[in-house]
Write a structure and sequence with these properties.
Elements (H helix, E strand, L loop, with lengths): L1 E2 L4 E5 L2 E3 L17 H37 L1 H17 L7 H14 L1 H13 L2 E4 L5 E4 L2 H5 L3 H10 L2 E2 L2 E2 L8
Antiparallel strand pairs: 1-2, 2-3, 4-5, 6-7
Length: 175
Protein backbone atom coordinates (compact mmCIF):
# COMPACT_ATOMS: atom_id res chain seq x y z
CA UNK A 1 0.00 0.00 0.00
CA UNK A 2 1.12 3.54 -0.82
CA UNK A 3 0.25 6.52 1.29
CA UNK A 4 -1.33 9.46 -0.48
CA UNK A 5 -2.08 12.85 1.04
CA UNK A 6 -5.70 12.17 1.91
CA UNK A 7 -5.91 8.35 2.01
CA UNK A 8 -4.06 5.10 1.57
CA UNK A 9 -4.06 3.48 -1.91
CA UNK A 10 -3.72 -0.13 -2.96
CA UNK A 11 -1.29 -1.22 -5.65
CA UNK A 12 -2.44 -3.98 -7.97
CA UNK A 13 -0.59 -4.92 -11.18
CA UNK A 14 1.35 -1.63 -11.14
CA UNK A 15 -1.79 0.51 -10.77
CA UNK A 16 -2.81 2.58 -7.76
CA UNK A 17 -6.38 1.79 -6.77
CA UNK A 18 -8.62 3.70 -4.38
CA UNK A 19 -9.38 1.33 -1.47
CA UNK A 20 -13.12 2.07 -1.19
CA UNK A 21 -14.25 3.01 -4.71
CA UNK A 22 -11.89 0.79 -6.71
CA UNK A 23 -11.07 3.74 -8.99
CA UNK A 24 -7.77 3.49 -10.86
CA UNK A 25 -5.76 6.50 -9.72
CA UNK A 26 -2.83 6.33 -12.09
CA UNK A 27 -2.60 5.34 -15.72
CA UNK A 28 -0.06 2.65 -16.61
CA UNK A 29 3.22 4.05 -17.93
CA UNK A 30 3.96 4.14 -21.66
CA UNK A 31 6.26 1.13 -21.34
CA UNK A 32 3.22 -0.99 -20.48
CA UNK A 33 3.33 -4.47 -21.98
CA UNK A 34 -0.42 -4.96 -22.09
CA UNK A 35 -1.97 -5.33 -25.58
CA UNK A 36 -4.46 -2.49 -25.05
CA UNK A 37 -1.59 -0.06 -24.29
CA UNK A 38 0.05 -0.79 -27.62
CA UNK A 39 -3.29 -0.42 -29.40
CA UNK A 40 -3.91 2.93 -27.68
CA UNK A 41 -0.41 4.17 -28.51
CA UNK A 42 -0.93 3.23 -32.17
CA UNK A 43 -4.27 5.06 -32.21
CA UNK A 44 -2.70 8.15 -30.60
CA UNK A 45 0.14 8.19 -33.13
CA UNK A 46 -2.34 7.85 -36.01
CA UNK A 47 -4.56 10.66 -34.66
CA UNK A 48 -1.54 12.95 -34.18
CA UNK A 49 -0.59 12.36 -37.84
CA UNK A 50 -4.15 13.16 -38.92
CA UNK A 51 -4.12 16.37 -36.86
CA UNK A 52 -0.82 17.50 -38.40
CA UNK A 53 -2.22 16.79 -41.88
CA UNK A 54 -5.39 18.77 -41.15
CA UNK A 55 -3.33 21.68 -39.77
CA UNK A 56 -1.22 21.71 -42.94
CA UNK A 57 -4.29 21.64 -45.20
CA UNK A 58 -5.95 24.41 -43.17
CA UNK A 59 -2.81 26.55 -43.41
CA UNK A 60 -2.61 25.98 -47.17
CA UNK A 61 -6.30 26.85 -47.58
CA UNK A 62 -5.87 30.05 -45.58
CA UNK A 63 -2.87 31.07 -47.72
CA UNK A 64 -4.83 30.36 -50.90
CA UNK A 65 -7.86 32.31 -49.61
CA UNK A 66 -5.62 35.26 -48.74
CA UNK A 67 -3.97 35.19 -52.19
CA UNK A 68 -7.40 35.08 -53.83
CA UNK A 69 -8.55 38.00 -51.68
CA UNK A 70 -5.52 40.10 -52.68
CA UNK A 71 -6.38 39.43 -56.33
CA UNK A 72 -9.99 40.50 -55.76
CA UNK A 73 -11.17 43.83 -57.16
CA UNK A 74 -12.57 44.64 -53.73
CA UNK A 75 -9.15 44.36 -52.04
CA UNK A 76 -8.03 47.80 -53.28
CA UNK A 77 -11.32 49.34 -52.18
CA UNK A 78 -10.84 47.69 -48.80
CA UNK A 79 -7.37 49.21 -48.50
CA UNK A 80 -8.73 52.67 -49.43
CA UNK A 81 -11.56 52.27 -46.92
CA UNK A 82 -9.13 51.13 -44.22
CA UNK A 83 -6.98 54.23 -44.77
CA UNK A 84 -10.12 56.38 -44.60
CA UNK A 85 -11.09 54.64 -41.35
CA UNK A 86 -7.64 55.24 -39.82
CA UNK A 87 -7.81 58.96 -40.53
CA UNK A 88 -11.44 59.26 -39.39
CA UNK A 89 -11.00 57.41 -36.10
CA UNK A 90 -7.37 58.11 -35.29
CA UNK A 91 -6.58 54.41 -34.97
CA UNK A 92 -3.38 52.75 -36.16
CA UNK A 93 -2.82 49.43 -37.86
CA UNK A 94 -2.48 47.74 -41.22
CA UNK A 95 -5.03 46.21 -43.53
CA UNK A 96 -5.05 42.44 -43.09
CA UNK A 97 -6.92 39.50 -44.56
CA UNK A 98 -9.14 39.30 -41.46
CA UNK A 99 -10.16 42.92 -41.91
CA UNK A 100 -10.84 42.31 -45.58
CA UNK A 101 -13.06 39.33 -44.73
CA UNK A 102 -15.03 41.60 -42.40
CA UNK A 103 -15.65 44.38 -44.93
CA UNK A 104 -15.84 42.39 -48.18
CA UNK A 105 -19.55 41.59 -47.96
CA UNK A 106 -20.40 45.22 -47.17
CA UNK A 107 -18.33 46.52 -50.09
CA UNK A 108 -19.98 44.00 -52.41
CA UNK A 109 -23.52 44.75 -51.25
CA UNK A 110 -23.47 48.47 -50.44
CA UNK A 111 -20.48 49.86 -52.32
CA UNK A 112 -17.52 51.98 -51.32
CA UNK A 113 -19.44 55.23 -50.75
CA UNK A 114 -21.91 53.80 -48.21
CA UNK A 115 -19.04 52.07 -46.40
CA UNK A 116 -17.33 55.48 -46.16
CA UNK A 117 -20.55 56.88 -44.74
CA UNK A 118 -20.62 54.13 -42.07
CA UNK A 119 -17.02 54.98 -41.16
CA UNK A 120 -17.95 58.67 -40.88
CA UNK A 121 -20.91 57.70 -38.69
CA UNK A 122 -18.88 55.63 -36.24
CA UNK A 123 -16.15 58.27 -36.15
CA UNK A 124 -18.62 61.14 -35.62
CA UNK A 125 -20.85 59.51 -32.99
CA UNK A 126 -19.29 56.43 -31.35
CA UNK A 127 -20.55 54.91 -28.13
CA UNK A 128 -18.32 55.95 -25.24
CA UNK A 129 -18.04 54.64 -21.72
CA UNK A 130 -16.09 56.07 -18.83
CA UNK A 131 -13.61 53.67 -17.24
CA UNK A 132 -13.07 53.49 -13.50
CA UNK A 133 -9.76 55.33 -13.85
CA UNK A 134 -11.51 58.27 -15.55
CA UNK A 135 -10.41 57.63 -19.14
CA UNK A 136 -12.92 57.01 -21.89
CA UNK A 137 -13.37 53.77 -23.84
CA UNK A 138 -14.54 54.45 -27.40
CA UNK A 139 -16.41 51.65 -29.15
CA UNK A 140 -15.50 52.28 -32.77
CA UNK A 141 -13.38 49.32 -33.84
CA UNK A 142 -13.56 47.90 -37.37
CA UNK A 143 -14.81 44.37 -36.76
CA UNK A 144 -17.03 44.66 -33.69
CA UNK A 145 -18.69 48.03 -34.18
CA UNK A 146 -18.25 49.49 -37.66
CA UNK A 147 -18.85 46.39 -39.81
CA UNK A 148 -20.28 43.97 -37.24
CA UNK A 149 -23.53 43.15 -39.03
CA UNK A 150 -26.09 44.72 -41.35
CA UNK A 151 -28.10 46.55 -38.66
CA UNK A 152 -24.96 48.01 -37.04
CA UNK A 153 -23.73 49.08 -40.47
CA UNK A 154 -27.03 50.80 -41.27
CA UNK A 155 -27.07 52.51 -37.87
CA UNK A 156 -23.55 53.79 -38.47
CA UNK A 157 -24.65 55.19 -41.84
CA UNK A 158 -27.48 57.06 -40.06
CA UNK A 159 -24.99 58.54 -37.56
CA UNK A 160 -22.90 60.20 -40.27
CA UNK A 161 -22.87 64.00 -40.03
CA UNK A 162 -25.13 65.85 -42.47
CA UNK A 163 -24.72 69.30 -43.99
CA UNK A 164 -28.06 70.73 -45.09
CA UNK A 165 -29.52 67.23 -44.93
CA UNK A 166 -26.87 65.74 -47.21
CA UNK A 167 -23.92 63.55 -46.29
CA UNK A 168 -20.53 64.36 -47.76
CA UNK A 169 -17.32 62.45 -46.98
CA UNK A 170 -15.47 64.05 -44.07
CA UNK A 171 -11.94 62.76 -44.75
CA UNK A 172 -11.39 62.91 -48.50
CA UNK A 173 -7.59 63.19 -48.43
CA UNK A 174 -7.24 59.36 -48.68
CA UNK A 175 -9.63 58.65 -51.55
Amino acid sequence: MKKRKDFVTLELDGQNIHPTTGEILSVPSSDCERPYCKDLEAIIIQKEKEIRGLQLRLGNKQKKDEEDARDSTLWQEGVRLWNYYLIATGHRGRFTYDRFETVEKFLAEFGFELCMRAVDGIAFDPFRKKRLNGTMRTYDDWQNHTFKDRSTFEENCKRAPLKNGVWTPQHLETT
